[in-house]
Fold these 3 entries.
Entry 1:
Amino acid sequence: MKRIVVLASGRGSNFLAVASAVSRGMINGRCVGLIVDRPGTLAAVRAGEHGIPVFTIDYSVFSTKSAYEEELIGTLRSLAPDLVVLAGYMKILGSGIIREYVGRIINIHPSLLPSFPGLDAQGQALAYGVKVSGCTVHFVDEGTDSGPVILQRCVPVLEDDDPGILAERILAEEHIALPEAVALFCSDRLRILGRTVIRLPDDSGEQVPGSL
């Protein structure tokens, strides 16, 4: 059973989707901690309701980003995660953390990457005039929303959409996509080959040469 640590910054709806899937036995893992970057988040409240330990590392009290990340990586090491899930975590991880957990950090982003990385992906999509948007779960690398794609889900973009309406439509798909990706990882069904993520069948014990 894999040890899962989730990082979040806000209301924690994607965290709740993962925690609920764990509770229902859909994920071969255990959420051993939620790390939040500020006090008073709804994500922390939801973690408490599921009996998941909460670790608050308040970004605002650190004089530098490196000091914050030193505390963050120390907390991660103490939790010994097999998988780190970024679920609405609004900080960019430093290269030291990414290198230590390479191939073991996943993120959910509200666009069909590589289109519209970074902030306000929904606004970017509307400004560009696309007819289809969605969400992407990907492994995290040292770029911005640039790691290998695990899976994607699509939604239509309607003529009367604004960023908030589109965001809610995408969020419903995020709540499906993120637990699915976590379940695949925790079942050892994902292999990274260059930029391609291979999904192994349920009963496969196959080892792909050159994979992580």
Entry 2:
Amino acid sequence: MSFSPCIYNTSDTSTFELYADSMQPKRINDPIHGLMEFDDWTIQFIDTPHFQRLRNIKQLGTTYYVFPGASHNRFEHSIGVAHLAHSLVKRLQDTQRSLIVEKDLECVTLAALCHDLGHGPFSHVFDNEVIPRIRPEIKWKHEEGSEMMFEHLLETNEIDIDLGTDDVKFIKALIAGDWSICPHRSRYLFDVVANKRNSIDVDKFDYLERDCYYLGMKSVFDFSRLMKFSRVVDKQIAYYFKECYNIYELFQTRYSLHKKVYKHRVVKAIEHMLCDALIEADPILGISKTVENPEEYLQLNDTVINQIEFSKEPGLAKSKEIINRIRTRKLYKFVDEYLVPDGLKSHLTEQKINAREIIAHQTENDGLKEDDVIVDRIRLNYAMNDKNPVDHVKFYNQYNVDEVFNLTRSQVSYLVPEQYEEISIRIFARNPKKMKSIQECFRKLLKIHTPHNTIPNEEITTSRGYTIPEGYETPTKKRRHSSQSSIL
């Protein structure tokens, strides 16, 4: 199979330079990594309907509705991850010749390229919110979808690359980040794409840099240094010890993006609306069943909301109404937030703080229903729950590059975090008119479940910054009243 190599631009996907020599690699111009080169065996996977589908899935889901610059898609991210995976493994193999094993480079590059094939509409909204609510009996994540779509890609496209059964199994294991599936293959490669050991991998390298770029934010984390000062020791990727603080910057950047962007209050409000719309549409469109059928899943992407929006199917009326509210910015409203103290994390459970318990504290005239309230538990961390991922990183020094060690927090800086996870409880109202009543009910419930004798007073109260004043009117309602007054 022969291809005419070209230069592509990931921003506008237009071909702007052709080469006559068919042996040249294809070059893709990327705003993050510059000119990236891919051999024919990689391009064959890119030029399939399965991979091209990622052009229609937003990398940051509903974030685009709040941050207009966040318009990038899973397509360019996946190409960027493949480029970094190939570059990292190639450098390791060139500097440590004992690592060279036939097909390892190809397999890890293809795993990186295909690791997000299984994402559904609006990325993590689908596997973290929609599927768990519609089908709580299955534990489905997009990684499983990626494995399914990778197999279907191989079955339905003419791929001119010699991948044996064990290679396919290996690629799927790399996507899952599970070395136990292929314990006979190179262990260090499982640190490249989906690193379950310490969560440092090229997937994060790309999305942190790419997301910051499109969001118009600055990242102080330098992934290129980390890649340059890495080597394989004891079957795992280790780093030069002076890069330790750079690694902390990686996880701090990730935390900051979650705090300021991914879990932004309006982003989450729209996410809940989109989730409600897809759940309402599921009996008609069968969205949740597609996770078991690759042919149907191939047709599912962000354009599903257009399908709902312009459908004349009566059963989609409720979904259309919600989508119209998103279009006209009549959004669900953020009501309140409580940052849970460490001593109450195991106490303020979902059984104690939920919509049913909140409306139980309403007054006679509030008229609240359970469906009026959304309780959202936000968990932010350094990618390994409440653990410090740097504790699981191996380092080397210039005196003995083949001997590794750990670094404690006190050996790096006393200003790095002491705690690595926070949980907050957020409350949203589907009906903006009920914000004040819902907030009062939530705060009454909190007082019941926060023991004053064990938790400092400043930690058991919600922020005054979120307190809704008496007689509060939403901006939309104010505009309506102002318009009516001017007419009179």
Entry 3:
Amino acid sequence: MSVNRPNPVSVGTIVWLASELMFFAALFAMYFTIRSVMDPAEWAAQTDKLNIPFAFANTTVLVLSSATCQLGVLAAERFKPARSGRIWQAGQWGMHEWMTLTYVMGAIFIGGQLFEYASLVREGLTISSSAYGSVFYLTTGFHGLHVLGGLIAFLFLLGRSFAAKRFGHHEATTAIVTSYYWHFVDVVWLALFAVIYLAK
């Protein structure tokens, strides 16, 4: 009789993500604390500078990247690293194609966030202009750094897969734990988007 033990890499990743969740909880606490003590009129004046339609479009890109990432995981679990058909036949894609698309979408999100920062700075909202500016850039900026970390993880995943002589369980596990992190980053952003852009 065999005992199925949990994968230690997966367990370690989940424990680490739990610690990251506490970090973001502290950022949310900081955000709500600043909001509670700041003058409501000044807070409203600052939030009016946010481009909600643009942020929504950027958020949609990140959310869809979670779907493409999961499709990459499904391909990895079938031990299918590369496509078996033409590039335009998405149904025949392997892990490489889906994860590359996820990487591109994540990079688009970062580019969109930098574009938004530049627009807000032109309107006078900087990290030192007000308490709102500080809390806005800290919360979204730290999340952006986590997205960059995910992009680096995708590069490591793809590099390891291409270097492997045979795509096996180790490569599939790397894809799975990378997806855990990416889904976590997406869920955190949805919470940030709801709090910062919608609950003004």
